[in-house]
Design brief:
Blueprint lengths: L5 H5 L20 H20 L5 H26 L7 H25 L5 H13 L3 H13 L7 H29 L8 H14 L1 H15 L6 H12 L1 H12 L9 H29 L6 H16 L5 H9 L3 H27 L5 H32 L8 H24 L5 H33 L8 H22 L14 H28 L6 H5 L1 H9 L21 E2 L27 E2 L5 H14 L4 H26 L7 H14 L1 H9 L3 H42 L1 H8 L1 E4 L5 E6 H10 L6 H13 L3 E3 L12 E4 L1
Parallel strand pairs: 1-2
Antiparallel strand pairs: 3-4, 4-6, 5-6
Helix pairs in contact: 2-6, 2-11, 3-9, 3-10, 3-11, 4-5, 4-7, 4-12, 5-7, 5-12, 5-14, 6-7, 6-11, 7-8, 12-13, 12-15, 12-24, 14-15, 16-17, 16-25, 16-26, 17-18, 18-19, 18-20, 18-24, 19-20, 20-24, 22-23, 24-25, 24-26, 27-30, 29-30
């Protein structure tokens, strides 16, 4: 381990000598044009679908042509022409093992987390999502651009590896979906043998699988040559696949992200992580293990890099067809397909660029890593100061789990401070200063590794608080004590390496090993806690009901802000009479909600000023519940995202420990880990820095008042006319039906009642009858009704809000 430095950690062998300059194994000159070609055609398809040039019904026809004619012809042609004698079988089996590993990992994890009602079908679909790549439409053009001039034999692996999913793994996923259909109780109960037979029949009826089998048979019968009489026909169909498939992929993306809901975010994050992070790492690792007998070191390295690039290929659109067929998790699959496709592009380009650049001096690379760490730390520092200030001002830090969250924020802030200090201290000849700075940096950094697991554990224990005596003080001690212990052991037993400015290798192999242990324990703790937490909920959806504020904050943040109270309006006959809700009075009302029914003697008047009103007390309880919310969904998502970054860090450590020459792709992983470690504050800010009640609501309220004042000066008459027309339309055509659907008589005092409805009920009703297309339009429509005097809040203290506030018709 002597002489280890950043150059040896990234490019060089462990001996410390720089590797010789070698020619790149791929050509990147055509990669950017290939990416532009692929994503340009995808964009054309998206625009055609978005502008309805090609409607959804016609898009299905194009999809049928691609999947049932063009792709089978392409596979048949290439299976006939495939040269099996030129295949490196260890590479093939490496990809096979990697796909099987990811398939079963996703399957087992889904079975553990998801509830019994749908776990088998979700396990099957999610496993197919994580393993079936878009090999032909998107993968083949990119591989062709990279390797046609240097390794043209690599192109045939696309056709050899792709059937692994289609013929081996997909049938297992379909079998799980069929088992779920059988367990949910279809009218006719099928035997296990019949289920197995139906799955096999479905697989064999798939034109892609059928033509692969026919192609392999024809390969041996026709001696690797397509007969001349059918060659042109097969070529015509096969050549039509590329552009048509990419265009269809763009068509299928239209409107898919709108289907993404908060309940699908957890599954989506895990699936994209499995597809774009876990899959390429396992593919490369399997090649490193199974292809060790390769006599050419250069060819071995080229194959492992090719395996990494293959693993990054995004999910194929056909998975959305499977999800639609089984009517299961279509939102997750389609949204994941869109996001995965566009996230894969920069990963593929950066990976290929790093693999094709000439051998670089390690000093500029070390300096670049240091600058990235420094810059991201400064940005994250400002975000964390803001987030901590919001947490303190909202006074949420006094309760669990926010008391742990603010400790996480402090650890992230100290890590940023430590990295900024290290940037100035690393190149100075000050041993004591370097050790002190390193101690601050790594105690806080290890603490950021530990806290996600402890927060997830605290959420789990809070759900079982009737069974467990929860002690927050012990958790805080653990969150800081474990990092202090780990760094103390490292300082006492480790040997500092000279000539390194990278804090990640300041104590060499001992430090990397220590970091790996901390990361592994944290990942296990967080993963097990989140799994058990999910098992105790109803398939993520119960998280939406676990706290009142979670649904309010996440669902209505964009739309539920106060509007100015009602001012003079159309309904000028309305008499405003104040009374205590406990004092029944009989008030004639010419604009009553139900004109055909007489108002009972005990009905409350229009404006409630009583402090003992039951409805006002109910609203206050909701507000108190919002203030006391634990924000479990936000904490869960933060823990999940941070666990993904921990997984990347652990992969980086293991990559370095078990590879004498980590290679250039390791640099890409290093940059990602640097951004993940010192950019955690941006994640914290995104979830906790914009508190609804402290930041968003006052800001929007102020903005709305300014906009209203400006609007009244500029377009006051036009706005009044729009309000008048809206109210007239509603009173003429919709009020009676609305009253029947959502208005309920509620007790507001000991002997008085009133007919009210919730603002959230009216917002949903407006969308259901087509008066509003989304919550934002419903909020605008309701605000016009309030400003026009058609509705009002029971105390006149609130404008119209899509929340659990009580309103009545005037």
């Amino acid at each position: 381990m002597g002489g280890l430095s950043v150059n040896s950690s990234i490019f060089s062998s462990r001996g410390g000598s720089d590797a010789p300059s070698v020619p790149p194994c791929m050509s990147i000159d055509k990669l950017l044009p290939a990416l532009l070609e692929c994503f340009g055609i995808i964009l054309c398809g998206y625009v055609a679908g978005r502008t309805n040039i090609i409607p959804a019904t016609q898009a299905k026809g194009l999809g049928s042509f691609v999947s049932k004619f063009a792709l089978p012809a392409l596979l048949f042609k290439n299976m006939v022409l495939l040269d099996f004698g030129n295949v490196i079988w260890p590479f093939f089996f490496s990809i096979l093992v990697a796909k099987v590993t990811v398939f079963f990992f996703v399957c087992v994890l889904t079975l553990l987390v998801v509830n019994r009602e749908s776990r088998f079908s979700k396990a099957g679909l999610f496993s197919i999502f994580a393993t079936q790549s878009n090999d032909f439409a998107l993968g083949f053009p990119i591989v062709e651009a990279l390797y046609r001039n240097t390794h043209p034999e690599y192109l045939q692996y696309i056709y050899l590896v792709a059937p692994v999913s289609l013929m081996v793994l997909n049938p297992l996923g379909f079998a799980l979906c069929e088992v779920q259909k059988r367990r949910t109780g279809e009218p006719q109960q099928q035997s296990k043998l019949r289920v197995l037979g139906s799955v096999l029949l479905q697989v064999l009826k798939n034109p892609v699988v059928f033509m692969v089998v026919i192609g392999v048979i024809s390969h041996f019968l026709l001696s690797q040559k397509i007969p001349p009489f059918m060659e042109e026909f097969v070529d015509g169909l096969a050549n039509s696949f590329g552009g048509a498939a990419l265009f269809y992929l763009g068509l299928t993306m239209v409107g898919q992200l709108k289907k993404l809901t908060r309940s699908t975010v957890v599954a989506l994050i895990l699936l994209i992580t499995a597809k774009l992070l876990v899959m390429p790492l396992i593919c490369r690792g399997m090649v490193e293990v199974l292809d060790r007998g390769n006599r050419s070191t250069m060819n071995h390295t080229s194959l492992s890099n090719y395996a990494f690039l293959y693993g990054v290929f995004p999910t194929a659109p056909s998975v959305a067809i499977y999800a639609s067929h089984y009517n299961m998790e279509l939102e997750v699959v389609t949204s994941g397909m869109v996001m995965g496709t566009f996230l894969s592009a920069p990963i593929m380009y950066v990976s290929a660029w790093l693999l094709t650049i000439p051998w670089m001096d390690s000093d500029p690379l070390a300096s670049a890593l240091q600058h990235v760490s420094f810059n991201i730390s400064i940005i994250s520092l400002f975000a964390l100061v803001w987030s901590i200030a919001v947490m303190l001002l909202s006074r949420k830090f006094c309760r669990i789990p926010h008391i742990f969250t603010i400790n996480l924020f402090m650890a992230q802030l100290l890590a940023c401070v430590g990295m900024i200090a290290w940037n100035f201290m690393a190149e100075q000849d000050n041993f004591l200063g370097q050790v002190l700075t390193f101690t601050l940096l790594y105690i806080s950094l290890y603490s950021t590794y530990v806290w996600p697991g402890l927060i997830a554990l605290s959420l789990l224990l809070m759900r079982r608080r009737e069974e467990v005596n929860f002690r927050p003080g012990l958790t805080v001690i653990t969150g800081w004590g474990v990092p202090v212990l780990a760094v103390s052991v490292l300082l006492l037993t480790g040997e500092r390496l000279p000539d390194t400015i990278d804090s990640a290798f300041f104590y060499g192999k001992a430090q990397v090993t220590c970091t790996s242990v901390v990361l592994f324990v944290s990942i296990v703790l967080c993963g097990v806690s989140l799994t058990l937490l999910s098992r105790r909920t109803q398939d993520y959806h119960s998280l939406e009901h676990g706290s009142a504020s979670d649904s309010e904050e996440d669902t209505h943040t964009q739309s539920s802000e106060e509007q100015p109270s009602a001012v003079g309006s159309i309904n000028t006959d309305c008499q405003m009479c104040e009374c205590a809700c406990g004092r029944p009075q009989s008030v004639p009302d010419t604009a009553s909600v139900k004109e055909e029914t007489s108002i009972p003697t005990g009905q409350c008047s229009q404006q409630c000023t009583s402090t003992s009103c039951l409805l006002v007390e109910e609203e206050q309880k909701v507000a108190d519940g919002q203030n006391a919310d634990i924000q479990s969904t936000r904490h869960m998502l933060v823990c999940l995202l941070l666990t993904v970054s921990l997984l990347a860090n652990l992969s980086s450590c293991l990559w370095w420990l078990f590879n004498k020459d980590p290679g250039r792709l390791y640099l890409e992983l290093q940059f990602f880990c640097v951004v993940a470690n010192y950019g955690q504050g941006l994640i914290s800010f995104a979830f906790f820095g914009l508190d609804k009640h402290l930041i968003i609501s006052p800001f929007k309220k102020r903005l709305a008042s300014l906009w209203q004042g400006w609007g009244q000066e500029v377009t006051g008459s036009a706005a009044s006319e729009e309000i008048r027309l809206t109210c007239t339309q509603f009173l003429t055509y919709h009020k009676e039906q609305c009253v029947r659907d959502i208005v309920h008589k509620k007790r507001c005092g000991e002997r008085s009642t009133t007919e009210t409805f919730l603002g959230s009920d009216l917002a949903r009703w407006l969308q259901s009858v087509g008066l509003a297309s989304d919550p934002g339009e419903a909020l605008v429509y309701g605000s016009r009704l309030l400003e026009g005097g058609v509705i009002q809040h029971i105390t006149l203290e609130h404008g119209f809000q899509d929340e659990a506030l009580h309103y009545r018709f005037t």
